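Aim 2, interim progress. The first record below pairs a target sequence with its structure tokens.
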Amino acid sequence: MKTFKTNREMELFPIEVEKDTNPISIVPTDQLHTLLASSETIASKSLEEILEIAEDVTSKMEELKDRKGIQGGSMDGTSHTKFRSKEDGSIWMAKDYPKERLHRAFVDEFVSGLSQFLNLDTTMNVKLGRMNGIFKVFVRWEETTDSLWDDLHKARENPSKFVKALTDQELRQIVIEQVLDWLISNHDPHAGHFLRKKIGGFLCIDKAQAFKYIGDPDEHLSSDYNPNGSINGEDSMFYMPIYNIILPEIAKGNSGLSFAEIRRSVNKVLERIERMSEKDYKKALLPYA
């Protein structure tokens, strides 16, 4: 992959949308997304004009009285307010973002689009919107039962018991999700962010720390890197990246999966990553350039 330019080296306006569909584009290229990914100083008038684009989403939503958030886990910025789409009746939960953290909203949407592009079953559907002057990210509601935090409690934080209790399909989903998290430099995928959907499988939430540590000279892709350990405790199984628990146990043979099976599943995702637009990936990195 080529060296990324800083946002001062890139022309933000006007924006030209490429007609070439190869490689495949993940997110739309428009002024709203460029603004959210930019740390350049923009006149407040221009800011308001561009943010009006987001009003279209909220005009199609109505607030519900039930204010419970997604069950079984936590989400960065969650306001615990739910909305119903006036178009198809689907339920969405809102996350509020102040102007100084708008790039987090962009990251949320980018990762959602990337996850859908990679055809992951764990995808969290995200839309950008604004209501009463407050910028919001709308996350599609899915009924969940619990999170892997509950599994850790049941296993009494015993790594072997924890992994052995997971099904082969659950383990496949986890190791495939690791490909996404390492691709976006997200080192906050703890057990509480893996929610069990009522229909089966996991819903993986809260990717707001994507790219946070990409500038860390100590960052490395391994089963012992835990940059949030200084906050939550280096040895806390509840807050360390879940992959730091899963991979060593699979290597010990404490699961029904072999590395050959894992490799086959992961290769399918890697093939789609190779078709990803480098331009889109650069856009996601702009807030950290």
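The second target in this work package is listed in the same format:
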Amino acid sequence: MNIPLPVLFCILIALIGLVIGEDVVTTATSNFRVEGDVIFPASSKGERWASNSRVLLNHGQHIGFVKEDGSFVVDNVPSGSYVVQIENVDFLFEPIRVDITGKGKMRARKLSILQPNAVSQLPYPLKLTAREPTRYFRKREEWRITDMLLSPMVLMLLLPFLVMVIIPKLTANDPQLQKEMEQMSLPKMDMPDVSEMMANYFGGGPKKTTSNKKMGFFSSLSQLLGLGKRQVNVVVIGLDNSGKTTILNHLKTPDTQVAQIVPTVGYAMTNFTTENFSFNAFDMAGAGKYRNLWESYYASAQAIVFVVDSADRLRMSVARDELWMLLDHKDISSKSDLTLFGAITGQSFRLVRLIGKD
């Protein structure tokens, strides 16, 4: 059978066009769209939250945008499994898993990190609701006296003292109970002087009268540092010319005091000794170029003394900022053995006037 050449050529072109058309149809139908609605809290109405929101599939592999009415469409998504997330600066959303079959069938379910095999079906088109507002800053937890009183260590210390105080009171006020205890041949329990006992226990013995009153601040500090800490590091900081070196010089014994105070360069170490403790006081320079050295001594300090010159009102705000930076430092905010005192004036050291620099 002889087929004319023009007819054969037309048949060949038609077959090529049919094959190309099938490929185009297959390519066009292999990509699908993911659609749904974003629901924000009622308090956000009137705000332009839609323009600040994006729809991310697999952390940005496919991106869509939210319309003003809250709807969204992500086109050209191949078949497979995707994690759908809403990115917004003001609200947090729960991610949703979407599975797309080769025929374009959509299946949505909750995304559970703890139980990845658990299936909790969700309706399609998707409905994504804001979970909570985004919190960029968290309020710092405040210290409360109840936290200390209810700690296990404090309760373990208080319970024996309560028993020692309550049982003698019960036996003294109840004659019948006292008689029963005598019949049981139990010795009489006298109530001890708890205040005197604690003073002797923490102070290392009965209090001794001394004429030297200059060490009152460091003696009270030693009582709060706990037992067994014979070597104590104290960091003394503050702005330059605030009187740090003058205070430490006044706390020295008369034979070790210096007559002229000079500005501190870097740091200087001074030693003090009480009945039970030996203090290493690090006198840190307060000039601006030396303040970055302060934080090197925070980790090893059991106490920090911040000196402020109340007469230097022009730099009072600078001292306040340095104090806040000190309290926010990671080595200070996480310390559990740091001693906290209130403000102590020059009269506490029995100083009429502080003379000298730094």
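The chain has three domains: 34-133, 145-192, 214-349. This observation will shape the mutagenesis plan for the next reporting period.
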